[in-house]
Structures are given as structure tokens and as C-alpha cells.
Automatic annotation (TrEMBL):
The keyword Zinc applies. It comes from Nocardia vermiculata. One of its GO terms (molecular function) is metal ion binding. Keywords: Hydrolase, Metal-binding, Zinc. NCBIfam families: mycofact_creat. This is Mycofactocin biosynthesis peptidyl-dipeptidase MftE. Pfam families: Creatininase (PF02633). Its cofactor is Zn(2+). GO terms for biological process: riboflavin biosynthetic process. InterPro entries: Creatininase-like_sf, Creatininase/forma_Hydrolase, MftE.
Length: 225
């Protein structure tokens, strides 16, 4: 159920208002081997699986720009920053009062701080939201085995495995200070945090299934059918 494919009359004819799932991603470098839209692709896929599991969910068009300033200096990265993303989400959810609630499915870790700020304000206003993001190993946080495997499963024709190289595999907590001061380029010249060289489509299928199950469980707990 994609919102962009429905008419206003379609929604008005439903016996009960549906929930709105919003995929949030980014347009940013993912090493030399993954497309700039990786985070958005994953978020859209997870929203689609969620809607397939529950008929009371409609999927909004994706928000493909996020807070990606840490990836500046790499060609193709576009960022709207923390404040703009927070404001965008607040106004979007405010406009969605005809839905039973809004599920924010976030595919980019850099979006979390502004999304949490937006959710706090929306909760204070009495609006019903759920914020969910996939998780992964602390030493494989960007364009590494996890994301590369997922993309090999979803869009193998867009993955240039011949360019994949091991990146910085230090755990994220050990890198966070340098990341905040100098961005990803300060800790990884290739833009990779992890090792994508052994990624497989089969592993990607398992990873996506795991994420989809956890997303559905979170939604079922917050919004029981």
C-alpha cells in the first residue's frame, strides 16, 4: 500500500484510518562500491515488508535527504542537516493527523539525533509516533559487510564489488570523537567503516529478514492490531 499510488477517496473509504510508515534515508557516500541511495533503499524495503505484514499500514514516499554532514568531502553527498530534518519531520507528522499514527523507519544513523528531537516535540503535542532504526555490529557501521550484503540482495546490479575494500573496523565508540570533529574522512579515506569484501546476497537476505522481524515486533508492540 503506497500512499503515492492511492487517491484521497481511497483513504477516505477505509473503515478505520491506517498507520503511515515513512522511510527516511540519506543521499551520501557509501564507499566506492555502494550507491549513494543505500540507506533510502533499505528503509523503503523495510517499510514495504511492514505493509505486506499488516494491512493497516500505508507507506509514504521516502525522504531521501538526511543529516549527512559527517560524509562531506565525498562526491555526491547531500545533507540538509539536523535542524532542517527535525523541522521537516515535525511538520510532516503534524500534517498526518488523519492517520492513526506515524511510523518513522530510519535507514541512516546520522538521522537519529534530529529524529529523536522531533519525536520528543511531537509526543509533547500529543501525536502518536514510533521511531525505529536497524542495528548492526559496532565494527561494521557504514558500507561494510552488513549494508553491502543487504544491497547485494536488493539491487546486485548497483553494487560494484570489484571496488570493495576493507575499511576502518575499529568499533564505533572508539571512533566517535574523531568522527564528530573531522567526519568520516578523518577515520576512513575510503568512507567505509567495516569490511565489505566477504559480503553476500545470502547474508543480506538474512539481515533484511532479521530487521523486518524486529520492525514488525516493535510496531505490533506499539500499535497492536
Amino acid at each position: 500500500m503506497r500512499l503515492a499510488d492511492l487517491t484521497s477517496a481511497d483513504l477516505g473509504a477505509r473503515t478505520a484510518p491506517p498507520f503511515l510508515a515513512v522511510p527516511l534515508g540519506a543521499t551520501e557516500q557509501h564507499g566506492p562500491h555502494l550507491p549513494l541511495g543505500t540507506d533510502t533503499t533499505v528503509a523503503v524495503e523495510l517499510c514495504g515488508r511492514l505493509a505486506a505484514a499488516r494491512t493497516d499500514i500505508v507507506v509514504a514516499p521516502a525522504i531521501a535527504y538526511g543529516s549527512s554532514g559527517e560524509h562531506s568531502g565525498f562526491p555526491g553527498t547531500l545533507s540538509i542537516g539536523h535542524r532542517a530534518l527535525e523541522l521537516l519531520v515535525v511538520e510532516l507528522v503534524r500534517s498526518a493527523d488523519e492517520f492513526a499514527g506515524v511510523i518513522l523507519v530510519n535507514g541512516h544513523g546520522g538521522n537519529l539525533a534530529p529524529l529523536r528531537a522531533a519525536q520528543r516535540l511531537l509526543t509533547e503535542e500529543g501525536r502518536t509516533t514510533l521511531l525505529w532504526s536497524p542495528t548492526g555490529p559496532a565494527d561494521d557501521t557504514h558500507a561494510g559487510h552488513t549494508e553491502t550484503s543487504a544491497m547485494l540482495h536488493l539491487t546486485p546490479d548497483r553494487v560494484a564489488m570489484q571496488r570493495a575494500r576493507p575499511g576502518n573496523t575499529d568499533p564505533l565508540p572508539a571512533l566517535i570523537a574523531d568522527l564528530r570533529s573531522g567526519g568520516v574522512r578523518a577515520v576512513s579515506p575510503t568512507g567505509i567503516l567495516g569490511d565489505p569484501t566477504h559480503a553476500t546476497a545470502a547474508a543480506g537476505a538474512q539481515i533484511l529478514e532479521h530487521w523486518a522481524e524486529h520492525l514488525l515486533a516493535a510496531v505490533n508492540q506499539r500499535f497492536p492490531q
